[in-house]
């Protein structure tokens, strides 16, 4: 009689197959119990790293913008270069060579409220050492260095870059247009405008 026709042999093979199937199911169950937490942990760590990276990128970009908003510090040129590189890296629109040069040489324009209810406005040429009076404030051009002019405002020195506008005091703003050369003295003079009011109103 053929062994394959033996009922006992068939039952034995069926039993072994059932055992193997049960073993595979057990191994699969154990693997799933072990793998799921590991996968969750790995994915969670990956998501957390991505979140931390995004937060770090935002903070780094905010720091870079705050640096270039300030006037260039001749003692820390590397810091400003780093800030410009960071802004360029995360900018959707590449910075032009001219834009980068402007960011290196002057503070970027900050958005400020437009001055309202102006009570006094004047524009003209300022010579070094000659005091001018603007709405109870004394303004003196003390020096010119490259594209910067140094003014004394009520005894306080501030530096203004050509084509920039700065807040002189709580009630006045100063704009420096550029410089002219006085042929008689061979010295540069500053072309400025000053606008004042009693209280600068903000929206």
Notes on the protein architecture:
This is Transmembrane protein. Keywords: Membrane, Transmembrane, Transmembrane helix. It comes from Rhizobium leguminosarum bv. viciae. The chain crosses the membrane at residues 23-47. The protein has 203 residues and is an alpha+beta fold. The chain has 2 domains: 1-109, no CATH class; 120-196. It is 42% helix and 29% strand. It is built from 3 helices and 8 strands; from the N terminus they run αααββββββββ. It has helices spanning 7-69, 77-90, 97-105, and strands at residues 120-126, 132-134, 137-145, 148-153, 156-161, 164-169, 172-182, 187-196. The strands form 2 sheets. Strands 1-8-7-6 form a 4-stranded antiparallel β-sheet, with no helix packed on it. It has a 4-stranded antiparallel β-sheet with strand order 2-3-4-5, with no helix packed on it. A hairpin with a 2-residue loop joins strand 3 (137-145) and strand 4. Helix 1 packs across helix 2 (77-90). The model is unreliable at 199-203 (pLDDT under 50).
Present the secondary structure layout.
Elements (H helix, E strand, L loop, with lengths): L6 H63 L7 H14 L6 H9 L14 E7 L5 E3 L2 E9 L2 E6 L2 E6 L2 E6 L2 E11 L4 E10 L7
Antiparallel strand pairs: 1-8, 2-3, 3-4, 4-5, 6-7, 7-8
Helix pairs in contact: 1-2
Quick recap:
The chain is of the alpha+beta class and 203 residues long. It has 2 domains: 1-109, no CATH class; 120-196.
Task: Indicate the low-confidence ranges by residue numbers.
Answer: 199-203
The profile of the biggest β sheet is: 4 strands, antiparallel
- Cα-atom radius of gyration: 37 Å
- Can you count the beta strands? 8
Kindly state the mean pLDDT as a whole number?
A: 77
Content of β-strand: 25-35%
What is the distance, rounded to the nearest whole angstrom, between the alpha carbons of the first and last residues?
A: 104 Å
Structural class: alpha+beta
String of helices and strands:
HHHEEEEEEEE
Number of helices: 3
Total domains: 2
Identify the strand order in the major beta sheet. 1-8-7-6
Shape: rod-shaped
Question: How much helicity do the residues have?
Answer: 40-55%
